[in-house]
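Deliverable D5.2: sample structural annotation.
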Amino acid sequence: MVKPVFIRILYFGYRIYCFFLRPLRIGVRVMMLQDEKVWLVRQTYMPGWFMPGGGVKKGETLEEATRREAREETGAELGNLTLMGAYSNFTEWKSDHNIVFICKNFEFKGKPDSEISELRLFALNELPDGIWPGHRRRLQEYQTGIQNPQFGEW
């Protein structure tokens, strides 16, 4: 098992790498919904709550990345996915692009990996303090019924 301190050090090194080389990054997020509630994760290497997700690997489709990240971070096997939208973030020297999917049918078959410190279900109208702004915006857009797919700022 990888220790949380080691993961934090790796994450800090990655941020330094991004500062100097400014890579283009593509990531996926999945809004895992169940009875007007959403599953969120907390990571061991940075504070706050997030929708499960992460980077797309070379040779991997967006769908494959979404399913892999959900499996790694929550232990869930996802059913049908719906595209919510594509969002960009250019703050802090980043060139990040997040593709967000919605999944309402999934089954927990495993456990979160060592990068996840907590997995919890929240009512959409009672989101936790500390949820990252882009994640909160997407969940609020879903609640207000904004039509899919969307694009814009993360």
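Annotation notes: The first helix runs from residue 4 to 21. The beta strands are 24-34, 37-43, 49-50, 53-55, 76-78, 81-89, 95-103, 106-108, 116-123, 150-153.
The annotation will be released with the project's public dataset once the embargo ends.
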